[in-house]
Queue: 3 jobs
Job 1
Amino acid sequence: MKLRTLTLGLLSASALAFAAHAESITIATVNNGDMVRMQKLTEDFTKANPDIQLNWVTLEENVLRERVTTDIATKGGQYDVMTIGTYEVPIWAKQSWLLPLDKLGDDYDAKDIIPAIAGGLSVDGKLYAAPFYGESSFVMYRKDLMEKAGLKMPDAPTWDFIKQAADKMTDRANGVNGVCLRGKAGWGENMAFLTAMSNSFGARWFDENWKPQFDQPEWKKTLQFYVDLMKADGPEGASSNGFNENLALFQQGKCGMWIDATVAASFVSDPKASQVADKVGYALAPDNGLGKRGNWLWAWSLAIPAGTKKADAAEKFVSWATSKHYAELVASKEGWANVPPGTRSSLYANAEYQKAAPFAKMTLDSINAADPTHPTVKPVPYVGVQFVAIPEFQGLGTTVGQLFSAALAGQSSVDDALKQAQDAATAAMTEGGYIK
């Protein structure tokens, strides 16, 4: 008995000594379903890396953005791994705030990352964040209403076709709107949609010398087309509708078409949540024949701040969480439909995933149609498809979003909204030192 007690005591002492030598890393992440699932599955990581302990700071998206931005800008050093978006990566990498991810392991297969996603997370050919999941945007439409209208949705429609179909599908007497699009103000709400849309009309936020371009005819065509389309075929109160509001409308059978995030496909095709689950088709975001489609590109990704003193341990975790192995782990526990989408080419070549996600091919095609390094028809000095990767964009994008939302609501004209957007952008770029 004494010997057993002594042995247990030695083991306990050994365990305590090991724990004292274990390296602890702190991970800041967003409180969405995929990240919550990741936390539940981390025993797989700690078994393989018993010398690394994980501490989690899980926050709502807006709070997360504020905390990690403050921490990295002030070199606070609170976090060893940060969950950030495609908007932050090129800005922070150029400020030398992030470490390049060049030690992800021999079996990581970085070349398997979808090129469009990798391009948005790279600077000068170096990867500065590893994508956890990615998305683009595309057209979701009611196949039954399209057939009733006597039309067939092309895989790659034009905006003219969208307008034609919306006119024919609108049936206000039965509560059906031909098209539902974002109208709620915000750089990540209506301006995500409108900036991506404007690319396909040949518009751009700034020319090569950072001069704002809202006074150019391409923006007039974009905003006028959008406002006219929504007035004729959109839902009432559209200027208050964002992603969630339009999702609810579509699931209730009140939208003939909806152009929005590819991740919405699993929601509109879920028979438990959607009244039209068996009637949904998918197509690429529209174009105008100018070589750019009206779709965006986004990824939630894991990055390592330059100030961490635990870079090796942090990179091991980033490698695990964004690996092929992790995808297989999720599939074994939760099913292929719940694997984080939009990051690896191999997932879209997987027959089991294709079977579980009938929208998989169109999602991949949509992601591949976006090029964050060449987002516009005419040359620009910035990267980003539905945003401009400069620090000033968050505030300026929301200001312009408010002006365009007001035009949609009929509170101002398209011309007035564009003039005010030009003035606001000129003031912001002058204050930021981009133009004199």
Job 2
Amino acid sequence: MRTIRRRAGQREAAMDDTTLQALTSAYQQSPDNLDLLGVILGALRDRGAEADRQNLLDQLDPESIGDPAQRRSAARLLLTHDRPNRALDFLDDDAPQTRLQRSRVLLALDRRAEARRDYEAAIAASAALEDPDLAAELAVRVSEVEGQGQRPRLRVLSNDDTTREEVARVLAPAEETVTFDQVGGLDEIKEQIHKRIILPFQKPKLFARFKKRVGGGILMYGPPGCGKTLLARATAGECSAHFINVQISDVLDMYIGESERKLHELFEQARQNPPSVLFFDEIEALGGKREYRREGTAAKLVSQFLSELDGFQRDNQGVLVLGATNVPWAIDPAFRRPGRFDRVLFVPPPDRLARQRILEILLADRPCAPGLALAPLAQGSSGFSGADLENLVETATESAIEASIESGEEVPIQLDDLSAALRTVKPTTLEWLTTARNYARYANEGGQYDEVLAFLDRHGRSR
């Protein structure tokens, strides 16, 4: 039995020798077949035949290989077989794939700064080439701060009463300024805001001459995702005002009297830094109808809010208070009194032209196929909010990213990607419009929902 096994091993070894010799002969007949060369070099290294392996590597000549892809393959072979200096001779163009391969070679030569530059240039030209492992190898670990021999000290902005969320908000960087150019559609509302809000901030002396105060309150309502928050930020950007985005957690507190105190401090902060815009999103959580509030503390918070808006000792000159809600019928009626939220603006779903403009804004900084026709998409997305359109673009972007990963190069967003996303993404405004229709028809005291009725009358036509 041992004799049989030994003879079988000898036959297998002989077969390996024969196969290797046949592969070598085949490569000599087609020296452009670098994949075959890679198999041969791997076999020679396993056998320890260093002289033969080095001889084959020395035969690689950059002058005899003109195709850039072939040159990159040759460089890859040389790098794999520990010849990075020779590999650089094959990587002399600036194609993104070549820069990525050159980055690996330069890293092997410990020329880290040059390797990082080539890697960043390759990714900037084609994001599909991103390589997390290579990026991690190229990362620089800073052991000490320049000009100091010790690590920088961290200032802790906290005390016993500060929550983790509050610390995160304090340390968060300021959001970039937004203007009306970045808000698609809503031209009528932007015009109203410009006349009633922005001009008083821009020409305070003229308005003071006519004894027209600068500031006041505006309540925006409409379906979720239609741009109320973005409009608030854009209004602050157009006014060059300090924007204070008030979250519910910034005000509500479990201890009696603390919610009112926090609300007062927010208004004081705005008064001390005019011009300022105080923005309350989901304002019904702070200013809901008192008749439905069982807790006395909730009613006190509403009263405090009203007092801050137009109290006897309050000077809100230069302070604009913006509120946004999806349920205006839940807001305490006292907020609508002149001098408080005396201007109520309906923010509807975008029409066809606005949807096309929103799609253009959302696709502006993404790789897209040239001549992308967005008009049919805008026509077919009736009832979509701005958030729905963003979801549509994100879904199409995922398809383009998957195609880029599969192909190994950047594949732009195609019309087919957007059309396929349009078949899967559904509008989210219809439920809100159904509810709003009932309030507009049966609870329209003082004509406060006339804008909703006008919108619903037009709804269903070509928009």
Job 3
Amino acid sequence: MQHFKISEGEIKAIIAESLKYGADYADIYFEHSSTLSVSLQNEDDNKASQNIDFGAGVRVVSGEKTGYAYTEEVSLPALMNAARQAARICQGDQPIVKVANFHPIVPLKTFYRNRDLDLQPSEQQIEELVVYLKELREQLLEADSRIVNTSGSIIHKVRRFAIANSLGDCYEEEQPITNISVGSVIAHEGRTERASCSRSFRRTLDMLTSSLQKELVGQCVRKLHFALTAIQPTGGEMPVVMGAGASGILLHEAIGHAFEADFIRRGESIFTDSLDKQICDPDITVVDDGTLPDFRGTIHVDDEGVPSQCTAIVTEGRLTSFLHDRISARHFGVAPTGNGRRESFRHMPVPRMRNTYMLSGHSTESDLIASVKKGIFVDDFSNGQVQIGAGDYSFFVKGGYLIENGHLTQPVKDINIIGNGPRTLSDIHGVANNLVVDPSTWTCGKEGQSCPVSCGMPSVLVEKLTVG
């Protein structure tokens, strides 16, 4: 724990203090993060800021009770005080004072570049980011004379953390993540439309290449041109073909949360009693994968020190696993799946998704579309609302097409699709062979915490959804 200037002996003393009031388990989580934000709202409006966060949290578990306390001062007295506070919250019957000897956690593989990351950006780096955003703006304005405004932002975060627990596990990690977002406004014959796109990877600033600029400009311009011709369709219940990639947000929100084991443990998920049961078509396999190189939800270990893995949630239509942190895993008598995640040292870890996606099937997207006489195709989503327990959802669709007699016809936009997650899963009767994991800046919110995630899926045919 050299970065946090605390010795192994001091860590053992803090854990012993955590256990002496009676507890089964204790851990300490240290964090030092730096977030650089640069934005360009118009030609003369540039902003740059940096946020530094530093501190540690102590968690103590006794039976079904959990205590947590954090401090922004990483010193032995402050951490001992946090340990006492956490321990008294969940005071147990029998003190345990023995702490295991420490052994380093060894991740399975390296999934992103994380050596010697710089927590302090230089003035030159900030200037280069401003230039990059200005170039992006100029390319957008040159791409179509009808574009009247653009904006862009880059957020680069470096996070160093360390974990030690009463089992003797210890681990130190450096995590990079870089986000870039761009938005544009186009005006044509009295009509104004907006479009945006983004990219996010566990990469340093080296991901900001000229080819990425061209990719973002091309996508943004295509979206603007699409919006100028799109209409709002007539609503009703109809078949929906969900396009590959961004449609995975529905998989994440309407279905994925219901597989998180804290909801299962409390009996709040519709899948609570469905483990090992067939819940959908055998052509459907859904995984939560923390091992995709460079993707936003990828981690070497979770925020409890459990090595990352790819967890098959649904295997050939059968529910095969929930997503566990250490606490839920102990409750169910299974191994944790590496899904204990937290926003920062100020928060306790809870079961959270990482990169959640459906594997490719055996159909083609064109076959799915050809099978629909009257319906819609959707592939560009915005915000939505979901009830975790029941799985009812409503999502706003930014873009898609009418399907008429097996062909994509009129572009459509600004519609809602309404359904129930488990029912939608069971109504999927066609999975294409074109899986895409979307590289946009997806963020998952749960219990007041935000965590970076990625989502994706191949194109699928849902027999019926309400469109309105």
